[in-house]
Specification:
By secondary structure, the protein is α+β, with helices and mostly antiparallel strands. The chain has helices at about 5-20, 60-70, 90-100, 120-125, and strands at about 30-35, 40-45, 75-80, 105-110, 115-120. The structure holds tetrahydrodeoxyuridine. The site of tetrahydrodeoxyuridine has 15 residues, from helix 2.
Length: about 140
């Protein structure tokens, strides 16, 4: 279980990652940071495309970068959306992809540029995930 200090640090990494966002169409920057089981942190940002549907969210970018670096288990996630006052959580597609590599008790924090932050879990974001039991390793 990640400590409050770890979650604070993870959120700072997510905030930093948002600065690299390529979001000229929505102008909505997102940064995501994953705490890997071995203690490393891997971050990602959203990358949009002029063919809008090809855009990728920060959360999936972070997951794919982590897997490409050999990490497959994550204990916590932080998401920063500095262009919104209120917290914005992962989209449905990202919830599904995150749940491939994170257990239902994995912690999630998301926040915008205001004081409000949401603290939750993967299980709360993707409840009744019956497919979870069927997945390989
Ligand atoms: N976006 C993310 O990167 N993560 C989220 O959790 C919500 C949405 C991106 C997709 C698009 O580039 C922009 O935010 C506006 O939807």
């Amino acid at each position: 279980m990640a400590s409050k200090d770890q979650m604070d640090a993870l959120f700072r990494e997510a905030r930093k990652a948002a600065d690299a966002a390529y979001a000229p169409y929505s102008k909505f920057r997102v940064g995501a940071a994953l705490l890997c089981e071995d203690g490393t942190v891997i971050a990602g940002c959203n990358v949009e495309n002029r063919s809008y549907g090809l855009s990728i969210c920060a959360e999936r970018n972070a997951v794919f970068q982590a897997v490409a670096k050999g990490r497959r288990r994550f204990t916590a996630l932080a998401v920063s959306t500095p262009d919104s006052a209120t917290p914005v959580g992962p989209c449905g597609a990202c919830r599904q992809v995150l749940s491939e590599f994170m257990g239902p008790d994995a912690q999630v924090r998301f926040g915008g540029n205001g004081p409000a932050q949401v603290e939750t879990t993967i299980g709360a974001l993707l409840p009744l995930d019956s497919l979870h039991d069927l997945k390989t390793p």
